[in-house]
C-alpha cells in the first residue's frame, strides 16, 4: 500500500464554474422562514451570496494544506485524510472518525493542537493524528464500487494505520464514525488502545437507542418527547438509505442543493441554544465543510455509504474488551441513564454546551476529553 502525500489544489476552472452555478441558482418560492420545512430560501440566498462573493477558497485551501495530508488506494478506493505527526516522542497514534455529513475538514481546527499541545496545555498528552474521510466523503472520492459499509471502512482504516507505521492506536469517533470505531474494537483487538465517542441528545432518540426498560415512568415520558421531537428529522436518512442515487443527482449538480442539505443538519443538530448554524459554528468553517463536499463531489458518495450501512449484514451480539469512554455534549440527563446506566464506561464527561459537531462547536472541551480519556487509560 503506497501512502502518498497530498496537496489540495482545486483548479481555477472549478472555482469559476462554482461561481457561475451559484449565480444561476433556480430558487424555490420564498414562502416561509420556518426551518421545519428545510433551509429557508432567504437564508439560503444570503449563504449563496457569501459563498460567491466573500468566501476565499484559496485562503482556506492554504490553511488546510498547512496540515500534512495523504492519499492512498485501498481495494481500488481512493482514501484521503490528514496525518499530523507529533514531535513528542511519547505521542499516541490517534485515529479520528468523522460522522455524517462532514469529512476530514471537521477536524482541521483541532488536529494541530492534539499533535502539539500549546500554551497552558503544553505538558498535555500529544497525539499523532490521522483523520481520513470515510469512502465517499470529502476527498475520499469517487466511489469506485459498492460495498463500502461500516465494516469494510473499519478494515480500510486499520490497514491505513498499519501502512503509516502504527501498531497500536486510539480512536475518537462520532455518529457514523462511532460505528467504525466499534467495528475496530470488535475486529482488531489489542491494536485498539481504546475508543472515546462523542455523543449528543440525538443519539438516544433513534432506532439504534439501547434498551430503556430500566427507566422510570417519568424518564420514559421524557424519552418519548425526545423521540417525537426528532421524528421528522430523519427524512434525509429515509431517502439516502433507500434511493441514494435519486438524491445524488441534485447533490452532484447543484452547489445550493449540497449546501442546504448540509446546513439543515447543522441547524438541527448543533447546540439548541444557538439560533442559526453560524451561531454554533463559525460561518466559514461551515462553508469549508460544504465546499469540500462540493469539490469532492461527495454528496452521492455519502448517500451511498448510508445505503450500504443500512443494508449490510451486521453481526449483532458481539462484544469486545477494549476500553470505551464517552463525551456528552448538550444538557440531557437521560444520555447517561440510557448510554451508561451502570457506570461501566471507563470515562464519562458531560458538557451543557455543544451538540453533534463538538470538534467545531466546543473544540477546547473535546480536546480536553480526548486527553483525559487516554491519560486515564495509559496511566492505569
Automatic annotation (TrEMBL):
What family, per the record?
Belongs to the peptidase S33 family.
**Under what name is this protein listed?**
Hydrolase
What species is given as this protein's source?
A: Agromyces badenianii
- Which InterPro entries is this protein grouped with? AB_hydrolase_fold (IPR029058), Epox_hydrolase-like (IPR000639), Epoxide_hydro_N (IPR010497), Epoxide_hydrolase (IPR016292)
Give yes or no: UniProt keyword Hydrolase.
yes
Q: What Pfam families is this protein classified in?
A: EHN (PF06441)
Q: Quick one: a GO biological-process term for this protein?
A: epoxide metabolic process
Give the active-site positions. 175, 307, 356
* Record keywords: Aromatic hydrocarbons catabolism, Hydrolase
Q: Where is the Epoxide hydrolase N-terminal domain?
A: 4-107
Amino acid at each position: 500500500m503506497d501512502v502518498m502525500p497530498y496537496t489540495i489544489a482545486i483548479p481555477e476552472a472549478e472555482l469559476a464554474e462554482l461561481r457561475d452555478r451559484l449565480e444561476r441558482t433556480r430558487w424555490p418560492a420564498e414562502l416561509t422562514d420556518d426551518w421545519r420545512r428545510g433551509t429557508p430560501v432567504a437564508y439560503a440566498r444570503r449563504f449563496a451570496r457569501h459563498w460567491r462573493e466573500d468566501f476565499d477558497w484559496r485562503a482556506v485551501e492554504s490553511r488546510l494544506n498547512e496540515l500534512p495530508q495523504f492519499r492512498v488506494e485501498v481495494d481500488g478506493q481512493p482514501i484521503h485524510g490528514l496525518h499530523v505527526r507529533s514531535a513528542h516522542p511519547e505521542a499516541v497514534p490517534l485515529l479520528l472518525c468523522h460522522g455524517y455529513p462532514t469529512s476530514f475538514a471537521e477536524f482541521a481546527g483541532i488536529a494541530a493542537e492534539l499533535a502539539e499541545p500549546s500554551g497552558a496545555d503544553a505538558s498535555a498528552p500529544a497525539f499523532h493524528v490521522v483523520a481520513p474521510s470515510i469512502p465517499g466523503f470529502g476527498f475520499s472520492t469517487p466511489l469506485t464500487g459498492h460495498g463500502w459499509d461500516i465494516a469494510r471502512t473499519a478494515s480500510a482504516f486499520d490497514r491505513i494505520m498499519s501502512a503509516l507505521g502504527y501498531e497500536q492506536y486510539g480512536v475518537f469517533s462520532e455518529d457514523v464514525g462511532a460505528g467504525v470505531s466499534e467495528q475496530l474494537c470488535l475486529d482488531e483487538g489489542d491494536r485498539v488502545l481504546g475508543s472515546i465517542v462523542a455523543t449528543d441528545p440525538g443519539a438516544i432518540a433513534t432506532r439504534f437507542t439501547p434498551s430503556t426498560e430500566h427507566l422510570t415512568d417519568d424518564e420514559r415520558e421524557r424519552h418519548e418527547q425526545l423521540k417525537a421531537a426528532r421524528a421528522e428529522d430523519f427524512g434525509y436518512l429515509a431517502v439516502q438509505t433507500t434511493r441514494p442515487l435519486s438524491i445524488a443527482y441534485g447533490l452532484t449538480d447543484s452547489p445550493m442543493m449540497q449546501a442546504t442539505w448540509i446546513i439543515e443538519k447543522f441547524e438541527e443538530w448543533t447546540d439548541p441554544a444557538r439560533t442559526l448554524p453560524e451561531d454554533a459554528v463559525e460561518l466559514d468553517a461551515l462553508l469549508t465543510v460544504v465546499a469540500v463536499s462540493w469539490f469532492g463531489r461527495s454528496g452521492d458518495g455519502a448517500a451511498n455509504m448510508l445505503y450500504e450501512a443500512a443494508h449490510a449484514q451486521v453481526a449483532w451480539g458481539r462484544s469486545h474488551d477494549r476500553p470505551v469512554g464517552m463525551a456528552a455534549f448538550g444538557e440531557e440527563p437521560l444520555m447517561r441513564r440510557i448510554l451508561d446506566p451502570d457506570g461501566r464506561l471507563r470515562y464519562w464527561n458531560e458538557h451543557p454546551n455543544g451538540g453533534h459537531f463538538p470538534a467545531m462547536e466546543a473544540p477546547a472541551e473535546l480536546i480536553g476529553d480526548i486527553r483525559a480519556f487516554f491519560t486515564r487509560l495509559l496511566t492505569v
